[in-house]
Amino acid sequence: MWQTLPLWPARASTLAGRTDALMIFMLAVTGFFTVMIFILILVFALRFRRTRNPIVTHIEGSNALEAAWTLIPFGIFMVMFIWSAGIYMTWAQPPPNAEEVFVVGKQWMWKFEHPEGQREIDQLHVPLGRAVRLTMISQDVIHSLFLPEFRVKQDVLPGRYTTTWFQTTKPGSYHLFCTQYCGTMHSGMIGEVVVMEPAAYQAWLSGGNAEGSLASTGQKLFQQLGCTTCHRFDTQGRGPNLLGLYGKPVLLDDGRTVTADDNYIRESILTPGAKVVAGFKPIMPTFQGIVNEEQLLSLAAYLKSLSQPERRQPGSNRPAEPPHPASAPARSR
Amino acid sequence: MATIAAPAVERENYLNTDFRVRSWLLTTDHKRIGILYLLSITAMFFVGGFAATMIRLELLTPAGDLMSSDTYNKMFTIHGIVMVFFFLIPSIPATLGNFLVPMMIGARDLAFPKINLASWYMYITGAGLMMYVVLTGGVDTGWTFYVPFSSTYSNTHVIAAVVAIFIAGFSSIFTGFNFIVTIHRMRAPGMTWSRLPLFIWSHYATSVIMVLGTPVVAIALTLVALERAFHMGIFDPRLGGDPLLFQHLFWFYSHPAVYIMILPSMAVVSEVVSTFSRKRVFGYAAVALASIAIAVLGFLVWAHHMFVAGISAYAALVFSLLSYFVAVPSAIKVFNWMATMYKGSVSLATPMLYAMGFIGLFTMGGMTGLYLAALGIDVHVHDTYFVIAHFHYIMVGGAVMGYLAGIHFWWPKISGRMYPEAWGKIAAATIFIGFNLTFFPQFVLGYLGMPRRYHAYPPEFQVLNVMSTAGASILAVGYVLPLIYLLWSLRYGEVAPDNPWAATGLEWRTPSPPPTENFPETPVVTWEAYDYSSVAEVPVAR
Ligand SMILES: [Cu+2]
Ligand SMILES: [Cu+2]
User: Fold this and answer.
1) Ligand 2: distance of its center to the CA of B324 in Å?
2) Where are the alpha helices (DSSP H) in B59-157?
3) Sign of dihedral through CA atoms B201, B205, B207, B208?
4) Buried b vs exposed e over A63-97: b needs ≥16 C-beta within 10 Å?
5) Do both A90 and A131 map to the same domain?
6) Could you read off the pLDDT of B323-378 as tens digits, one per residue?
7) For the whole prediction, is pTM greater than 0.90?
8) Rounded Cα distance, A110 and A144, in Å
């Protein structure tokens, strides 16, 4: 037990280096001032102790000093603020070309789904050097996905997707923790991230999976659930044509415009009445309680594949083709 | 006014005027109510301390082997709820504040003595209900009660716990309201705002937070109870609710609550540093204004607890910036206390040792707060042991050290006896060492990535956890020592003079212990705060 006294976590992502640099700066600055304050307190206590300094020298306050110790800390704080905000904004904005992985958290396990169809539990395989974006949702309470070696963490909420991302820099196996208290087995809701060389990762991706890609699962669901009865790939359906919807702005009947992202699609399926597309009647039934979070992710992946059929990697499963792509007219929104 | 007679042994005072139990339970004397609070919060401190002990023992080994996960979760929940709502929030205001606010401004009592007594009964009712919850199975939500875990998924006594906090919340609203009215309306002639001791300024700022903030947490917790009982859908996304709404409401109070806990300690430190340096507090106006600035800015930073919770990045930028603003007045206070010692005539009596400990540890707590306000770093350290270490430096290194400084400083006035000085110093040193050994390793643990509220943890974190538990056992000894020697001093301690420290406050110009009416006749204040030429005697050098 005493052989290991770790003091600093490994650095395995592009963000880790930036976070650590700021951390070292903060340690230096706050360390300097803390030591200075400790020394001054001790020096004053001893130098001016009553036996040595029985007579007090009365000093009235000093505006210059007050200004100095207001403005100097303030200036230092602003450096910290700006530096750290830069890191945060990088963390908050996943790069557009990132690999996508879907995450469902539930008491007390992590499920990961790769668009290519690979599914894993409490273990996440990612390629070295590529940006990976996690789109995450919880099936029950709030969880939080924390990857300490990547210096990345994001709460995982019920009812809404949150995203985070990282770009790995070192192959290996790293911690994965849940950091939002979520009940009995909170401390057991852990796992590992395995960072693989790209070639090994490709092999892993295509190895031994019969279920087909997320999008093709979604396509099957789309038919099984009867979505096709209203949503057709022409203008004849009772519901809007969903071809090319993903990522586009949608005009609502109350005049607002929203972007058709993952959260919008999820909401459209679970609470269709909340945002009604302009020109349509609110006749879509709710699928709350009928589809679970994983199925929702598949449906979203399917709708997404209808918008960007060229995105898939070579070697992975082909995306599902829309039923009648040739006859689908351009969207008129 | 400044009668400096040797204390007559049988002189009538607030303690010996009536010994019957009902004279205590029905008292409206602010000093006796302060004592009632002192006894009750001390009991709660040891309940919370017991839970802390169990936590530290469990964490000696990586595996969760001492108790079940559910029991562990209840332990940290009880530790948090009891320490925050039933010890730290009432600690200084309800004990020392109750005792001293009227005396320091030259009043006979608070503006509403019966409301003051009612506040203690509210507190006792809340604390009693909380103890009932603890004994009948506990609650496992964490002190933060995050939904939807607390509202839907937990199988423990959430509603009862929430009601207990709700009731105790009213005791602090009553106290705050009473202080505000008292400070405005009951100052003695000549006690102008600029002559108020800084203790009063800080308590004024604290009271404002109590009155404005507590209702919000009461509402948030009521909504949790309603949601739990009736599935109203306020926080449940399946019913159109928003779980983040709870976090906003909760932290809108619970961040300012941090200042409810720390401002009164700063109040004590200002008095103690000045008295034991025999020098007026440097930059009186700056220190007073800093208290007010903290109270106001403290309400504008709540979402810094939510940087990774799924709020918009732009909101996060604003809350980070504002969090840096609120750090400035705290820095101002630290520098002014140090400047007060400079060229003073410093005595290192126990209260001063605690106050110096406060300044050092609060500085470390404040400095590490800068890391948490730093957005990019918070993404990594949020909800890890780094946060635990940070707020224990503020709450224990700061608030509790200040509380102990105050208890020792005013003990002669409260009890009429001196505490044993040597033991006081030993305890202060023990607490300082034990505290740092407990919590410093937790900063490292946090940056390494150990999440908070973990019953079991990966083995590489063990060494640091063992250090922390070792520190906690030293800390525990440090806390039991004052309990023993202060009780001992009630009977065997030296009889206290009226003003053993040659301090300037009006409370020291009354007998020790003071008579029920505090001042036989209303004092007239003709001197500035901390004017040491207004007290004649030279204090015993300790
Ligand atoms: Cu968890
Ligand atoms: Cu806060």
Assistant:
1) 12
2) 69-81, 89-92, 98-105, 113-135
3) positive
4) eebbeebbeebeebbeebbebbbebbeebbebeee
5) yes
6) 999 999 999 999 999 999 999 999 999 999 999 999 999 999 999 999 999 999 99
7) yes
8) 10
Please name the residues between 25 and 64 in chain A that touch chain B, using a CB distance below 8 Å. Answer: 26, 30, 33-34, 37-38, 40-41, 44-45, 48-51, 53-59, 61-62
Q: Does residue B3 lie within any of the structural domains?
A: no
Q: Is residue A3 part of a domain?
A: no
Residue indicated by tokens 């937990």? B154
CATH of the domain at B451: 1.20.210.10
Nearest to B512 by CA among B414, B429, B367: B414
User: Residue A289's domain spans which residues?
Assistant: 214-305
Distance from C-alpha of B146 to C-alpha of A138, rounded to nearest angstrom: 14
* Helical (H) or strand (E) element with A215: helix A214-224
Q: In what order do the strands lie in the sheet with A172-178?
A: A123-127, A191-196, A172-178, A143-147, A152-156
Q: CA A17 to CA B450: how far, in whole Å?
A: 19
Contact B139, B129 (CB under 8 A): no
Alpha carbon of A143 to ligand 1 centroid (Å) = 5
Burial A237-260 (b: 16+ CB within 10 A, else e): bebbbbbbbbeeebeeeeeeeeeb
Residues of chain A contacting B282 with CB distance shorter than 8 Å: 59, 61
Cα A22 to Cα A91, A95, B365, B380: the distances in Å are 14, 22, 19, 12
- A107 contacts chain B (CB < 8 A): yes
CATH number at residue A292: 1.10.760.10
Instruction: Judge whether A118 lies within some domain.
Output: yes
Instruction: Please check whether residue A96 lies inside any domain of the structure.
Output: yes
Residue A320 has pLDDT above 70, yes or no: no
